[in-house]
Structure formats: structure tokens, C-alpha cells
Amino acid sequence: MFLNPWSLALTLCSLVVLVLGAIAGKTAVRVLRFWEPGSDSNRQIRLENEIWLSSTLVAYGLGFQIITLILFVLAADQFCQVIVGAMCATGALLADPYGMPALLVKLFGVFFYGFWILLHQLDIRSEHYPLVRIKYLALLLLLPMLVLDASLQTLYIAGIKPDIITSCCAVVFGESTGGGTNLMTGYSQQGLLMAFIGSIVGLMAVGWGLLRRWRSWLAGFYAVGWLWFFGLSLVVITTVISSYVYAMPYHKCPFCLLKPEYHYFGFALYGALIPAAFFGASAAIAGLVRGKVGLAGVVDGYQRLAVKISLILLVIFSGLSFYHYLKYLISGGEG
Amino acid sequence: MAQTNLEKQINILDYALSSLWRRRMKSLNVLLVFAAVIFLLASFQMVTQALSDKAKQVLVYTPEITVQKMSAGRQEAIPLAYRDKLARIFGIRRVVPRIWGYYFDEVLLANYTVMGMDVEEMPEGSRLDTTLASGRMPTPDEQGRVVIGHSVKKALDLEGRTTFSFFRPDLSLKAFTVSGEFSRDTDILTNDLIVMNLADARDLYAIPAGMVTDLCVYVANPKEIDTIARKISEALPSVRVLTRPQIQKTYQVVFGWRSGFGSICLLSALAAFVILAWDKASGLSPEERREIAILKVLGWETSDILAVRFWESVIVSGLACILGITAAYIHVVYFAASLFRPVLMGWSVLRPDLHLLPRMAAGDILLILAFTVIPYLAATVIPAWRSATVPADSALGG
Q1: Cα–Cα distance measured from residue B124 to residue B294, given in angstroms and rounded to the nearest whole number
Q2: B374:A74 CB<8 A
Q3: H or E element, residue B217
């Protein structure tokens, strides 16, 4: 279904990102082959100019990818109107086998571009550009991901046929399986909630410990903890938190949160969670390049900042996610 | 650190604004063309949205299932006797026969929609009188009484008289008396409509007794629509069974398709604009080269100049979006989208005066931004880099 404004916009954005990526990739190859920090040849000066271009292009690409991520979910929400049996983005994304993979690749893509920009920002803080080769190697590794993203998205859009029968989120995430596919079963709500609260407390404790005294193994633990917490949060949002937001016990869906009916609550929730996980994990990743010339001070500064930001966002995220839950427990829910 | 960084960005923004102002004719050109492109895309999007909303509203009142008889792949009259077969299916609330046709007025070159039905049989039949501006619906035993829509009244010039005649297929005349007129609030449905009772419609179209054009099936429980539709098509072979959800989805697909098609046509406008933006951004005058060279001598870095160019693009796109989207809203709401209506609406000659009310959610604005601003930013980034890497010595020395 390409003849739809949403599909066209997504395809257009992907094309733009691919073109930007290809231009940046050309620079990357030249940098990897000809980069000589000590030289003052014409080529080296040209390359030093070009790395500005490529980093700007990747920064733009990151921005565009974040927009396409939102656009993709909103588009799926629109597509559900023409797919039999789908009532929200869940149904539309499960309507063909490429929907969910495309979403996941987009989601993780945002993290990878973010890490790249982090490397770049650290790199230009030092006069020696110590990370140039690593950075451009990473850029070349990112390109297949861009292509994968664009192809999955194109396959998904091509596969959407308005007469496919799919399931609505009430079946997919609900407790009564009734023969439909169910994404989230076998977790007890209480256990999940305990794990969720435990992880929040644990992350806060580790973060606090890191701010008092920096230890690199603890930073690694913090990063792994954030990755675990990110996955867990997505599950908890789907199975526990969402139904309190909707005030409907059987409506469990991570996408309907983004709708205007729920005051775009999902944007605040995911908008706190995704950057929090990014900063939490990036502290350890920045630590990996700490040994390079002239980076020690910059990296130390960044790591403290990143842990602080992630802790603040964690507090915001926990507040948002427990708001409806506590409101229900205290005042007995809506009205 | 964050404080100084913010301050720096604000200063850069300040510089970007003054730089746009210094080149105001050039900026204004780009801004106006950009706003025009956004205006076209946004009005298209808004019309589609408003029309599909309208269709959704209207379709709430259609019967759950419509049954039509097919012969040689074309629709033909359906015998009333089929009603008895349908009555046996459990879950059907009511079956209402209907004659639905078009009447082409050769003098006025207008198409009217003619609907023949027995009002009492419809589930909400007794409430139909509330849709009338004057008069009442014809009862089954009143011959020759009709209720007409606003445009029909205007087309037939029925001010001050209540009778008019239509030709039967054998060119004999059939006279009608107007017994009521639909209110303007239902124009989207009733503008070109003439409602009469079944016997009159049969007489007008010379349909044999015991035949109608379609049967409207009202279902008690909406969840059973598909099951009942399947049972009907099993019980009555050679009929076409249309369900309301199917019709709704078809409308969605058609509107989505039309707006997608329109967007593709507008893509060429977008491409032209992107080329213009690229061209405007890459043609560096000697003054601009000197300006950048001076900035560099003063200690600006390449990244700062790139930031200036970025803010310039953001300001231009932001202003163009506000202009374009506002203009599109005015075009759709106050001018009823007169530029695009022929593309998106049907072919009927008597068109209702539409009052479209687009609903702009944040998502739709994001869609328009993705369509226009992203290509624009992408088109200006490489020229911006070219200008930012002008070597200081070459520009000043020349």
C-alpha cells in the first residue's frame, strides 16, 4: 500500500536518510584509507573539512530517524483503519511479518546513531581527533543497519493489504488467548511489578554509588542494568501500566498510549525512558575510549553528566509510570 | 557547561536571524515558495481527512448489510420473496426493501438520487420526520408524494409550487407532489435526494411488481455482522452481500489512495522546490564568502557556521510551515477546498455545499513536516557545509 500519504512520507524520509548515509559513507571510506593526522597535505586538509560534513549528515540522519520512528508508529495506527480486524497499531504491525522487526530495527537504530554522535562529540573535544578511525569504522557498520531499516519498512508497506485479517490488541496482549496470537503471556503481574520496582531501586543505588566514587566495573554493571531495565519496562508498560492508563483491565497495548485520547501520555513515558536508557548505557561506552590521547578529562566529565541525566530521567519515568497506578489505588480510579 | 552551551546557541540563533534579515529578498523567495508547497500538501491532507471523517459519520446510519442480486456480474432487481428466506436467519432484526436509482434530468443536465422505501418499516422510521425542514415523510398509501433535498428544489425551481413531473422509461409523464423538504443539516446525504414510497418508485422506473433494487438488512448485534453476511450469501446464491464495515474500509482505502495519488503529483512540486532550495543555498556571493572568512578569522569554527546555517533552515521551515498550514486551513474551511474538491469528490453534478472541518492532530502536522521540512533540511545541508569550509585566506585575499 504505497499510495497513502503515510507510506509515501516514510519512504521519502528513508530515501533522504539513505542518501545522507551514502554521502557520509563515502567520506568514511576515504578517511579510513588516507587519514594521516600528522600530515599537512592537501588531501588531509580536505578530509578534515569532510569529517564536518559527514558528522553533520549523521546528526541530521539521527534526527530524521527519530522522526521516522514516531511517524512509523503513527502510520501503523492509520493503517489499522483499512486492515480488517485491526483496531490500533498492534494489529497493523502484526499484519505482516515485517512490521515488528521494522519497528525494532528503528528503535535500536536510534540508540546506535546516538552512540555514534557521542563518539563524535568526544572526538572533537580533543585536538588530536583520536577517535576518527573508530568513528568511521562504526559509521560503515551503521550503513547496513540503515539499509536494513529501509528495506524492512518498504517490505512492510508493500505487504499491507487492506483485506488481511489480523488481531486487535485486545486479543494480542490480553489474558484470554481465545486462539489469537498473544505476545505477552506467562508473566505474573505481581512478580513483574516487583522486578520493576526492584530494578528502579537497584539502578538508583548503583547510579548513586557511581556518582560518589567512579568504578569502571560498576559503570559496566550500570549499563547492563539499563539494557535489562529498558526491556523490562517495555514489558511492564504493556502488561501492567497501560491498562491503568486506559482505565480498562483488558486493554493492554503499548501503542494506544501515544494517542490523543490519552493526552499523548506515551510520548512523555517513552520520551523519558528511551533517553534515560541511552544515557545510562552510554556512560560505560564512553569509558571504553577513555584511554585515548587527551580524552580522559572529557570522558570523566561526560560520564558523570550521563549518569546524572539518566538518574533524573529515571525519576521522571518512575513518577509517570506509577502515576495512574497510584491514582487508582488511592482514589479508586477514574471519576 | 550546559549554561554556556545554551548561551552560545542563542547567540548563534541571533546571528542566524540577522543574517536572514540581511538577505531578506532571497530568504523571502525561498520562504514563499516553501509555504506554497506546504500549503498544497497540507490542504490535500486536510481535505482527505475531513472527507473521510464525514464519510465515517454518514456511514453510521447505513444498514449493517445490503443485499443485491447479481446477474452476469451486474446488479439487477431482487425479488421481494427473498425476504422470507432471510427472515429465517437468526440475529436479523429487520429486512427493509428499497428501490434506489438515479434519475437523469435531460433538461437541466442533473442527476438526482431517487430512493423508494416504506418509511414505517425502517427501524428509526418514525424519527425520520425530524430531518425535515418542512412537511412530513410520505406514508405507503399516499401516492405521488415525495420529500426532496435542497438542490433538487433549486434545480426544479420549485419556489411557490409543489408539483413536478418525471418521465417513465416509456416517456409517459408521472406527476409528483412535494410533501416535505430535507433540512440543510443533512445536505451531504440528502442534497440531491428524492424520497418516495416503494410503489411510486416502482412505477417511475417500471420495475415489475414484487421486485426491488436491494434489501437492507438490519442486524441486532454488530459483532454478528460477518457471520450473518456469510449465512446470507450461503442461503441466497447469486447475491452480493455488502457489509457496513466493508464499505467503511473501502472509503478509507479510496480516500487514502486518492490522497496518496495527489501527494505523488505534489512530489514533483516538492522536488522542484528542493532543487530551488539547493540552488539558492549553494550560490555563494563574494560578500557571503567574505563574511564567512571574516567569521573564521574571528575564531568561529566550521561547526559554528554549520549551526548558523542549520538555524537559518529551521527558521525558514518553521515560518513556511506556519504560513502554509494556516493558509491550507483557511482554504479548506472557508473556501471548502475549492482547488482539490473535483479530485477528491465523486462525479455527481449536484454537489452539496460542503462545510469541511479538518481536525489537525499532532500526527498530521508531523506528517506534513516529514514530507516537506526533511527534504528541505537535507537539501540545504551540503551547500551549508560547502559554505562553512570556505578557506579564510582565499576569500579575503581575492
Answers
A1: 79
A2: no
A3: strand B214-219
- Looking at beta carbons, which residues of chain B come within 8 Å of A68? 370
Q: Tell how far CA A306 is from the center of its chain.
A: 16
The predicted structure's pLDDT at residue A177: 37
pLDDT: which is higher, B352 or A59 = A59
Residues in chain A within 8 Å Cβ distance of B226: none
CA distance A198 to chain B (A): 32
Over residues B167-182, the mean pLDDT reads 89
- Would you call A262 an interface residue with chain B, using a CB distance cutoff of 8 Å? no
Average pLDDT over residues B299-322: 89
Q: What is the pLDDT of residues B182-194, one digit of tens each?
A: 887 777 777 888 8
User: What does the pLDDT look like over A100-120, one tens digit per residue?
Assistant: 899 999 998 888 888 888 888
Do the beta carbons of residue B348 and residue B188 sit within 8 Å? no
Task: Determine the straight-line distance between the first and last CA of chain A, rounded to whole angstroms.
Answer: 42
Residues of A in contact with B263 (CB under 8 A): 5, 8
The whole-angstrom separation of Cα B307 and Cα A59 is 12
Contact B372, B37 (CB under 8 A): yes
Interface A:B, Cβ pairs < 8 A: 95
Q: Look at chain A and count its residues.
A: 335
Name B46's Cβ contacts closer than 8 Å, sequence gap at least 6.
B328, B329, B332, B337, B356, B358, B360, B364
Q: Do B367 and A64 touch (CB under 8 A)?
A: no
What residues contact B313, with CB distance under 8 A and at least 6 apart? B376, B377, B380, B384
Which uninterrupted H or E stretch holds B255?
Answer: helix B244-282
Measured in angstroms, the CA of B75 and the nearest CA of chain A are apart by 23
Q: Minimal CA–CA distance to B152: which of B191, B180, B96, B106?
A: B191
Residues of B in contact with A60 (CB under 8 A): 377-378, 381
Structure confidence at residue B106 as a pLDDT band (50, 70, 90): confident
Give the Cα separation of B324 and B18 in Å (integer). 23
Q: What are B259's three cell numbers?
A: 490522497
Spell out which residues of chain B touch residue A74, defining contact as CB-CB under 8 Å.
Answer: 363, 366-367
Under an 8 A CB cutoff, do A67 and B369 touch?
yes
d(CA B332, CA B337): 4
User: Where do the domains of chain A lie?
Assistant: 5-166, 173-331
Burial of B229 (0-12, 13-18, 19+ CB in 10 A): buried
What percent of chain A shows pLDDT beyond 70?
Answer: 90
A186-200, B14-28, B332-346, B360-374: least confident range:
B332-346
| Cβ-defined contact of A67 to B249 (cutoff 8 Å) | no
B370 and A68 within 8 Å at the Cβ level: the answer is yes
A174 confidence band (pLDDT: 50, 70, 90): very low
Output the CA torsion B300→B304→B306→B312 (10° steps): -110
Residues A305, A163: Cα–Cα separation, whole Å: 51
Number of C-beta neighbours around residue A10 at 10 A: 25
Nearest by Cα to B55 from B340, B245, B257, B252: B252
- Nearest CB among A8, A81, A124 relative to B263 is that of A8
Taking the model in full, what pTM does it have?
A: 0.81
A19: nearest CA in chain B?
A: B378
Mutation site for B-interface testing, chosen from A11, A44, A56, A308 by largest number of B Cβ within 10 Å = A56
